[in-house]
């Protein structure tokens, strides 16, 4: 199956993948699409994906990064600098915990990926990051802050926060909290509309990944605004007291040592910022949507989460380990809403499922194909079941359930994401009486499974739900 599929891919990538699967007789074997003159091999079978995740020698994400970095704003003339080995002293400075004999020979890019892990995987730096992040979510969800978001009745204390867009609520709180955790509160003094620009950027960022020279979108303007804010941070806005996360501080020091210009350094920081923001606000939207449209589930969760309060504060450890209903909603939402197409360049011929996949083609893993597979999840695999992961405790370990990817690029933010989402959803449904506006007469939003996706899909354009909130007794 090899002819030009560019239009069909951009128009509806999942439908094209479904068509390809049927074309090869539903055997699950890898098949090829030709998009923009390039061959894309599509994997839809869990065993093939597992093999790919182990094939670090034959496939590479690095080979895709250069094009992406240019899309994010790094000048092509400096790309080679990012791959040059850095002086051992610079690498050591960011990793005081490593003995001198264990200092790796990293380039700036590989060092940055390593620093992600050192910040985000469990340990003291992770604890600090999560503590700051949850603190910001809590601040954003203070009644006074929520009323502050609503300018229509400013000056008068409101009892009900009515007909609020759930999309806006999730992006304001979650993008706001991550942005402040990474760059300190000053970032919103530098760019008050940062969250809006980030959401605009995210909407069309797939065009950078798939190099789609599409119509003029908000992407370019949003990128300029975000890069300008990040350049300000690099130039020292906020002064020595600026409360940057450890990863931001350390990456900036290494960029400086590598002699990267402020402009290029801002584009590199955008990668960190974007990775952290791509998914959580959309996942929060879907989790709350499923909960609000199911009164029984909503009530059961309030009771379960109520037990996690100690002295009027949420006990996060209890929330994470002793709230199985919330956990099942989290897993099921991750399963159904991730439409990511994860890409790897083939650098050496690779046998998958008896088929030789050749360089310099690209392999795409379709998360939706894996996570909505009937053989793994049953005949109702495409519908939401809040009890699915409660009924079968082994589902989390299924080869078909990989919401955070795997192999060399396994999401290092998965532990942060769990705390962030549990805390956000738990706070909203216990601190507030939250309900659908208009007496619940609203349609459940439809997942946008048409636009090529890099993570959790948003709702279709123009779709939203509206909620009324008041402080719970
Ligand atoms: C709901 C939340 C999230 C989901 C579903 C998610 C999903 C993913 C997936 C599927 C990948 C692998 C992509 C690939 O292999 O092509 C990934 C990578 C990554 N994620 Fe997440 N993520 C989430 C939250 C986060 C958070 C909160 C952070 C940071 C604070 C983060 C940081 C990263 C980074 C840095 C990578 C790249 C890792 C590498 O290439 O080595 N993620 N994420």
TrEMBL record:
Domain of life: Eukaryota
Pfam families (alphabetical): p450
Record SUPFAM superfamilies: Cytochrome P450
Cofactor(s) annotated in UniProt: heme
Family the UniProt entry places it in: Belongs to the cytochrome P450 family.
Species of the source: Cudoniella acicularis
InterPro entries membership: CYP450_sterol_14alpha_dmase, Cyt_P450, Cyt_P450_E_grp-IV, Cyt_P450_sf
Name used for this protein in its record: Cytochrome P450
Keyword tags: Heme, Iron, Metal-binding
GO molecular function, one term: oxidoreductase activity, acting on paired donors, with incorporation or reduction of molecular oxygen
Residue numbers binding heme: 411
């Amino acid at each position: 199956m090899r002819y030009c599929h560019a239009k069909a891919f951009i128009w509806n990538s999942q439908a094209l993948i479904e068509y390809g699967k049927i074309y090869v007789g539903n055997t699950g074997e890898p098949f090829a699409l030709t998009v923009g003159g390039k061959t894309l091999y599509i994997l839809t079978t869990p065993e093939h994906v597992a093999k790919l995740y182990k094939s670090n020698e034959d496939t590479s994400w690095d080979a895709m990064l250069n094009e992406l970095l240019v899309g994010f704003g790094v000048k092509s003339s400096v790309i080679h600098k990012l791959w040059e080995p850095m002086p051992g002293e610079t690498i050591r400075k960011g990793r005081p915990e490593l003995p001198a004999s264990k200092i790796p020979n990293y380039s700036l890019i590989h060092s940055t990926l390593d620093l992600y892990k050192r910040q985000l995987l469990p340990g003291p730096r992770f604890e600090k990051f999560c503590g700051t992040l949850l603190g910001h979510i809590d601040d954003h969800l203070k009644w006074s802050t929520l009323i502050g978001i609503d300018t229509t009745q400013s000056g008068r204390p409101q009892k009900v926060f009515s007909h609020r867009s759930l999309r806006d609520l999730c992006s304001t709180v979650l993008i706001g909290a991550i942005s402040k955790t990474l760059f300190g509160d000053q970032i919103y003094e530098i760019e008050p509309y940062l969250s809006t620009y980030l959401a605009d950027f995210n909407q069309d960022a797939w065009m950078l990944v798939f190099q789609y020279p599409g119509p003029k979108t908000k992407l370019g303007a949003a990128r300029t605004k975000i890069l300008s804010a990040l350049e300000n941070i690099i130039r020292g806005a906020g002064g020595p007291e600026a409360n940057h996360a450890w990863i931001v501080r350390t990456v900036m020091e290494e960029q400086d040592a590598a002699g990267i210009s402020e402009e290029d350094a801002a584009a590199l920081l955008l990668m960190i910022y974007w990775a952290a923001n791509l998914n959580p606000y959309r996942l929060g939207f879907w989790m709350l949507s499923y909960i609000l449209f199911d009164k029984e589930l909503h009530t059961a969760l309030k009771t379960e989460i109520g037990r996690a309060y100690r002295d009027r504060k949420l006990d996060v450890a209890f929330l994470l380990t002793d709230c199985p209903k919330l956990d099942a909603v989290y897993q099921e939402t991750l399963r159904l809403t991730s439409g990511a197409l994860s890409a790897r360049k083939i650098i050496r011929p690779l046998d998958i499922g008896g088929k030789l996949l050749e360089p310099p083609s690209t392999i795409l893993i379709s998360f939706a194909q894996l996570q909505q597979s009937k053989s793994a999840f049953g005949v109702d695999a495409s519908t939401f079941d809040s009890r699915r992961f409660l009924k079968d405790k082994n589902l989390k370990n299924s080869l078909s359930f990989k919401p955070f990817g795997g192999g060399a690029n396994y999401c290092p933010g998965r532990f942060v994401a769990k705390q962030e989402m549990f805390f956000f959803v738990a706070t909203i449904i216990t601190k507030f009486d939250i309900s659908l506006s208009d007496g619940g007469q609203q349609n459940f939003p439809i997942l946008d499974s048409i636009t090529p996706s890099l993570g959790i899909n948003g709702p279709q354009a123009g779709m939203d739900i509206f909620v009324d909130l008041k402080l719970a007794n």
